[in-house]
Write a structure and sequence with these properties.
Two copies of one chain form a homodimer. Helices cover 42% and strands 13% of the residues of chain A. Chain A has 372 residues and is α/β, with parallel strands linked by helices. In chain A, the strands form two sheets. In chain A, strands 1-2-6-5-4-3-7-8-9 form a nine-stranded mixed β-sheet, sandwiched between helices. In chain A, strand 4 (148-151), helix 7 and strand 5 (170-173) form a beta-alpha-beta unit. The A-B interface holds A 130, 133-134, 256-262, 265, 268-269, 272-273, 278-281, 284 and B 130, 133-134, 256-262, 265, 268-269, 272-273, 278-281, 284.
């Protein structure tokens, strides 16, 4: 969406948004579909039990209660955390363009930082002295050139990137709640980041991050940035996941070359072989991202208003069984489902929503769905 | 030229070829033009004094005498060196395709090695232990995959590449005569190379290599190979010259990444930024060159027969002054000279030859010429 076309949620709407995204089987993609279909979070919340029942769920999905949402908002507020919604002025512009942008981003610190052009810097926790020094040089150079850095607050490269950017602004993306900083010894680093930078998360207040929350979190690191710099990375490391997500999101991927005899360079050299841009200093990155900074992002409506009406006929049993027979654990595109089932797009969408809310369907990128 | 269309020089022709290429102001490009124009080396040799005079030379060019040529052939023969001419069966096929291929290549050792697919490996003399180890790994892997290696016999990376290829075959390209191995302590390495590999040079027997002979020599290293691997290279090093020449010749350029904090990786990382293919092991190189190995080389006639006749009218004074007025120390294309002077292509070619033999004109790649 263009500048100046921002929306602003009412307090009531924000509570409904929080309740909806925190309810069982509702992820960012499902959230969008629900809001589009029902015209708003309130109507979607009311529809969840019926959707789950018709989708064959074994019980009613856990719905985040109004009390829970109000408690979370109050607790977050105490820590200075604001919930910014897709479409609102403070929502990071680039993040909004990704397929599975969090409907609500919990932001702590200096929100204006999120409006600056950003470059992510990630790498191994077990970094070498050379890797830490390079990270520092690159992060400083980016800061001096007017960029904010984005990273994951991990030990090693991530922490070095944040620390070198304290004067110019840096964004830490958390895999847990704002009150559950990981690793715990970086609570102090968060405190140093907040006056000039920000910490953000999509996870609930009080959420202790699990291992699988980190790869999921990585899409926000790349999503916030024009590009991702991988400084040191072993084979099969989390940084390579971030690089892959960055590519899927159309972000630039930069890799710092290293000696083939250094295992910490295996991942970055592998990225170079796959076509990542080699960089050794901040200037390399600046010259690569400057031409794309001014480009318009693909227009994506905030989609918090508008509805294709919740009324109308429910799918009948034969349509339902027809769509079900086309689904399997292998991802298939929604377009194919519509074409092959001969059902209307709206009907297929409802059936998929029901299965999803019942916990029987998973939504992937690129319009693909599969049975769980 | 295709397989089986080889020529074979007579002893007399070989002496004339050697005399012509060793005569003053005759380089590989001028050699081609002379042979084409006069129909053979013998006629060209006879024409040299008149050409130089008409070109305004201050004296007669030094012509390599028959005695000198016979002495060089005899001395070379004693060391087991053969002079192989462009177009002959043993002349390396890929080298023949370059613009300024030496008309005669002095070859010592196992000539069949020159028929194998080859990859050049070059790098800094002041190599790190890691660089030497990588060179060894890459050279061994290439040898096992059926490739011969090519390098420049220098200390450091070059020597490591040759040594690791002794079992499978390697080609050392010298910047001086076969009896003037540089550096002298690598005479022993040459001896180890010859049973399974070869040493080659275009320089005269007895020639002590000067600094400026090395960059010139580097075009043969890349010219013999499908691609060039640069293992370690500082900024502004000879290896980067080889990389540039390789690009000009349409060869693949491979660079081994290194830490940005290591000055010996500045050159290779710089090449990566310019688009060189990153490699960390032999398999990377093999998979890149295998698709191009079978490709036909651009057809280039050996051009040792055929003539546009040495007879006919000489250029007149006005044509001469017209072409002269278009020339300057800035390179200009022969095609432009023909177009702008309104003289015939043959006339322009003769005028340029005269200037060249008189030592007043330099011939560059891409059909460009300039006043000296």
């Amino acid at each position: 969406m263009g500048e100046g076309r921002h929306v602003q949620l009412s307090d009531e709407q924000r509570i409904d948004w929080l309740r909806l995204i925190r309810s069982q089987n509702v992820g960012p993609r499902t959230f969008r579909v629900l809001i589009n279909h029902f015209g708003g979070a309130h109507a979607a919340l009311e529809a969840l039990p019926a959707l789950a029942r018709r989708g064959g769920g074994s019980g009613s999905p856990r719905i985040y209660s109004r009390d829970q949402a109000e408690d979370e908002l109050a607790a977050a507020d105490k820590l200075g955390v604001a919930f910014v919604a897709i479409g609102e002025a403070d929502y990071p512009r680039r993040l909004q363009a990704i397929d599975d942008a969090p409907p609500l981003l919990a932001v702590r610190g200096h929100r204006a930082t999120l409006a600056l052009p950003a470059v992510a810097i990630v790498g191994s926790r077990n970094a070498s002295a050379a890797g830490l020094k390079l990270t520092q040089q690159i992060a400083r150079g980016l800061g001096e050139a007017g960029f904010t850095t984005v990273s994951g607050l991990a030990r090693g490269i991530d922490a070095a990137a944040h620390r070198a950017s304290l004067d110019t602004g840096t964004v830490a993306v958390l895999a847990g709640g704002h009150d559950r900083v990981y690793p715990p010894e970086h609570a102090e680093l968060i405190d140093a980041i907040l006056p000039t930078g920000a910490a953000v998360t999509e996870m609930p207040f009080g959420w202790e991050p699990r291992a699988r929350d980190f790869p999921r979190r990585n899409r926000l690191i790349s999503g916030l940035a024009l590009g991702v710099v991988i400084v040191e990375a072993a084979k099969r490391s989390g940084s390579l996941i971030t690089a892959r997500l960055a590519l899927e999101q159309g972000r630039e991927v930069f890799a710092v070359p290293g000696s083939p005899l250094d295992p910490r360079a295996e991942g970055t050299n592998g990225l170079l072989k796959q076509g990542a841009t080699p960089v050794t200093e901040a200037a390399d990155i600046v010259s690569a991202v400057q031409p794309i900074m001014g480009l318009d992002l693909p227009a994506r409506e905030p989609e918090i208003s508008g509805s294709d009406s919740s009324e109308g006929l429910e799918p009948d049993a034969s349509e339902r069984s027809q769509v079900m027979s086309l689904l399997s654990p292998a991802p298939v595109s929604v377009d194919d489902l519509i074409r092959l089932s001969h059902a209307s797009p709206r009907t297929v969408r409802i059936i998929l929503l029901e299965l999803e809310i019942a916990g029987r369907l998973e939504r992937h990128g690129g319009g693909l769905v599969s049975l769980v």
